[in-house]
Amino acid sequence: MTRRLLDVNVLMALSWGGHLHHDQAHERFADVDAWSTTPITELWHLRLMLTEAVTGRAVRASDALAQVRALRQADGWSWIADDVSPTTWHVAAGSIRGRRQVTDLQLVNIAAVNECVLATFDAGVLQMLRPTERHLVEIWN
Asked: Which whole number is the average pLDDT over 89-108?
């Protein structure tokens, strides 16, 4: 059984019906037995839920927090503490080209340290990894 660390776009797609990949996320999630969130993914999920330009409507903080809590109630969920420093990255350590790669690479490294794979819609993450590291990412398309 492979545990998946869900990135924020997968979390948004699961919890927000207006997301482009909402149906696709639910189809893939139906086959997931074990999955996790981290402080990064939960905080970004909360931030995006509170961004009217993203959701198309104002969302109260209490409702956004309720969404995060509801996700944690789904079968198979577990918490992964983010105790990985970018100064100790082992995966794709030299592939940062700019600010846009930092969070993705942090999540891949958290997944590697915790023996799971990062589940994402972003196929670009694979381009940052060496061929021998690409098994750490699962593209949900």
From this structure: 80
